[in-house]
Specification:
278 residues; D-Maltodextrin-Binding Protein, domain 2; 2 domains; globular; Inositol_monophosphatase-like; Inositol monophosphatase; magnesium; metal-binding; inositol monophosphate 1-phosphatase activity
Length: 278
């Protein structure tokens, strides 16, 4: 299958995401009954009927847009883990997080997002992150840059924040998911940066990172629907990312954490500050 993932293609992907948000996500926001929310792996890992409906609609739309493609949705994988087997070899795959930050969404907190990554034989070639509240989105095409689409559909380029010393950086370290003793180490070292915060939503955190509104992000869990889109947009906006040990991120990786910074030198400075036991 040959599909040109261009800027025009990504705008069509965004149209699909916006339609799902308008029809499935926003009408239920702050209107969910108790029977519309259920836990998956823990009380912090929840799913709603809106997640499932939005993923269903986007899956159908992407298959119409790209017949023969594979669609890997977070909620579908819960029911069919074997869907993940196609992520590395599919000629074209769409990876969907229908609502990132579902715990916020279910609690009525307006910090959530929709994320889609497009892969060709294991390489991320397109990405989109939508904020349904503000109706803004970050898009990227591999090798062609990253840009923001406003609520009025105006576009502007995205660039990461300029490099600064680690002690002058602000951002988020999602330390609560780190294994001990690494969790204790990061929590102890985090006050050494200029500032930190946690939105409980990778989509919103990536939107800040790629628009130069913060310098770094740190994550432990590396599920593809949570990070593939943000990883490509950050890369195309000029940033640098690697696992905690410095190795590059791969779409099949499920461990090793992710650390984002403006460039490689500032990445190393930040890694030494947050993760060095000394």
């Amino acid at each position: 299958m040959t599909v040109a993932v261009s800027g025009a293609h990504m705008r069509t992907v965004l149209d699909i995401m916006r339609q799902a948000a308008a029809e499935r996500i926003m009408p239920s926001f702050r209107h969910l009954g108790a029977d519309a929310i259920r836990c998956k792996s823990s009380k912090m890992d929840v799913v709603t009927v809106a997640d499932e409906a939005a993923e269903h609609d986007m899956t159908a739309a992407f298959l119409r847009l790209s017949p023969g493609a594979v669609v890997i949705g977070e909620e579908a994988v819960c029911a069919r883990p074997d869907l993940m087997d196609a992520i590395e070899d599919a000629d074209l795959a769409y990876v969907i997080d229908p609502i990132d930050g579902t715990a916020n969404y279910a609690a009525g907190v307006p910090l959530f997002g929709v994320m889609v990554a497009i892969l060709r034989r294991g390489e991320v070639i397109g990405a989109a992150i939508l904020d349904p509240i503000c109706n803004i989105a970050a898009l990227a095409v591999r090798g062609e840059g990253a840009w923001l689409v406003g609520a009025d559909d105006a576009e502007r380029p995205l660039r990461c924040a300029p490099p600064v010393p680690a002690a002058e950086m602000c951002g988020n370290a999602s330390w609560r998911y780190l294994p001990r003793p690494l969790r204790d180490l990061v929590a102890r070292n985090l006050p050494r940066v200029m500032g930190s915060w946690d939105f409980r939503c990778a989509a919103q955190e990536y939107l800040m990172l790629v628009d130069g509104q913060c310098h770094f992000l740190l994550f432990n869990r590396t599920m593809p629907w949570d990070h593939l889109a943000g990883w490509l947009i950050h890369r195309e906006a000029g940033g640098y990312c690697a696992h905690f040990d410095g190795s590059p991120y791969c779409v099949t990786d499920r461990a090793g954490g992710l650390l984002y910074a403006p460039d490689r030198a500032s990445w190393q400075d930040l890694r030494d500050l947050l993760l060095d036991p000394g």
